[in-house]
Design a protein that fits this description.
Length: about 200
């Protein structure tokens, strides 16, 4: 019996805009995110920054050699933020409804600016994180990031949940693989399509 739900944030709760992100990346001289993944010198500092594990100054220093010379710091940082989009009010309503039957936790690789954006999106609809989630587990605060198993163990320890009574929704297969190894039920969410997955699980 499912008693707990763990939700990822970006691409699951918070919508992503890949078209705007690709344009912003190209504007500063970077390839789109798919091709960034194929270049360790780009994706390692990028992923660390986007998870809040690498300070902004260090990220800019490491990523600038791959950018146009005329790209400003603000341009480069916008290329990281451009992917962040809205949260439909209907989704927030659905999550608050879930809390009437389940414990709902947010587990996200996120940097502080992206979390502030998320708060703005929630608050414009009149919601606070405490309305939607029993507890937050944010990588930039924890200094841990998925797929490191330690971030899952921290969640288990602090909540006391039983993984075998928990379903975990994420849009990244690598994260879900670790979750499954730790006995969580898992669901791969197509980008921005959480509602369809909840229906599949009859939640």
């Amino acid at each position: 019996m499912i008693k707990n739900i763990i939700l990822d944030l970006a691409g699951v709760v918070l919508n992503l805009n890949l078209e705007r992100d690709t344009k912003a990346l190209h504007d500063v001289g970077l390839p789109d995110y798919k091709y960034c993944l194929q270049c360790p010198d780009i994706i390692i500092p990028m992923s660390s920054y986007l998870s809040g594990l690498l300070p902004t100054e260090d990220f800019l220093k490491r990523i600038r050699p791959f950018c146009h010379q005329e790209a400003t710091d603000e341009d480069i940082l916008w290329s990281m933020d451009a992917v962040l989009d809205d949260i439909p009010k209907s989704r927030l309503i659905r999550i608050t409804e879930l809390r009437k039957k389940y414990k709902v936790y947010l587990l996200s690789n996120i940097y502080e600016a992206a979390w502030n954006h998320t708060l703005q999106q929630m608050r414009k609809h009149g919601y606070e994180p405490s309305d939607c989630f029993d507890q937050l587990f944010l990588s930039y605060e924890m200094k841990l990031a998925k797929p490191d198993p330690l971030i899952f163990y921290r969640l288990f320890q602090e909540t006391g949940l039983n993984p075998e009574e928990t379903v975990y929704f994420d849009d990244t297969a690598e994260n879900l693989k670790i979750g499954a190894e730790l006995k969580l039920y898992t669901c791969l969410v197509p980008m921005n399509q959480l509602e369809d997955c909840l229906e599949e699980w009859k939640l």
